[in-house]
Amino acid sequence: MSRPRFDKLDPARQKRLFDNAAEEFGANGYDGASLNRILERSEMSKSSLYYYFDDKADLFTTLVERSVGFLLREIGGLDPDALTAETYWSELEKLYCRSLALMNKSTWYVKLGRMFYRLRSDPKQSAPTGRIFQAARHWVGLIIARGQALGVVRGDLPDSLLIDSALGLGEALDRWIVAHWDDYTPEERLAMAEQHVGLFRALLECRETQVSRPSAAR
């Protein structure tokens, strides 16, 4: 995790470092990316880098975190407290669709996802990716708790099991999307929003709500 002292670094130097890191990782992948090239273009010494980051994996994961933050600002956030029983699933689907639409416009996020999961699959270098999943776990917990309060998410299982199951499904979908992105047209990718949220709905939806849905009766 980037150290707090990094936040005190001049914003222009921060931007230059992340711009060059994004270019290097995007062009050469995680394994092929050279810290020396990133540092040379950023006019930063290796000792300075290690003053702010633990290693290459830490720099990359911080880049992912900032990119995710930018993505969320672009697509708009989701306030759990603003969800109602009527809008709960449709708002999640809209958020998913906006994410796919942004990925259609900028394949950088697809490349980033591929590199991230390649890093996560390496036991020797996966530790920094854990903090992203901790943040995701917190957000998923808030969404599930709101759904339970609204009566649209099941409450017959331990919350920790529901959160773990939702995170597991989310990671499986993320991995699949970035691996098969080039196999689909932009329109087909957008159609995935309804399909994939449908998987979450089948996993999490309150059974009483499922029974009352017309599609469940057919």
From TrEMBL:
DNA-binding region listed in the record: 34-53
PROSITE patterns: HTH_TETR_2 (PS50977)
GO-annotated molecular function: DNA-binding transcription factor activity; transcription cis-regulatory region binding
Superkingdom of this protein's organism: Bacteria
Domain HTH tetR-type intervals: 11-71
Keywords from the named record: DNA-binding, Transcription, Transcription regulation
Pfam families per the UniProt record, alphabetical: TetR_N
Gene3D superfamilies per UniProt: Tetracycline Repressor, domain 2
Protein name (database record): Transcriptional regulator, TetR family
Organism: Allgaiera indica
